[in-house]
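Sanity check. The docking grid for zinc ion depends on where the pocket ends up, so I'm generating a full predicted complex first rather than guessing from homology. Inputs follow.
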Amino acid sequence: MTLDDTLHIDGNAPVGDLEEFFRLAGGDSVPLPQCQDCARFHWYPMGRCPHCQSERLVWRQLDGRATVYAATTVRHAFTERTRGQTPYGLALVTFDEAPEIRMVCRAIGPAPAIGDAVTVRVEHDPASGDIGMIWCRLTDEEDRS
Ligand SMILES: [Zn+2]
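Predicted complex below; grid placement will be based on this.
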């Protein structure tokens, strides 16, 4: 699979290559674009590698295991969508398989703290016409073994 340059800007639809990201995600696997020339990952998806400008990109499925790099708690709903859902945790995570990548995730359950092991999960329901969500939850001890 390769990235495409398609842009979709119609209301709540995912924009550009994020649509492919959400389409490829499932379970606890997290797709990330990887350059075939310099082998580095990048995030957000782009039509060219931001490190070497190569257009030879492929999607790689990561297992979703990550570590919290920074965390906060959201106490104010900034959109109608999140009204009534506060407070909730947000985490900036780095992936075990791609430690150079940092991705923002919304926490399920207790708000994670810096250094916590988390599992990232991407959800997208194409039928909803809504953008997808990137979630993380504290990793159980059994998940790490
Ligand atoms: Zn590259």
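Relevant for the grid: Residues 93 and 103 are 5 Å apart (CA to CA).
Also worth noting: The longest helix spans residues 18-24.
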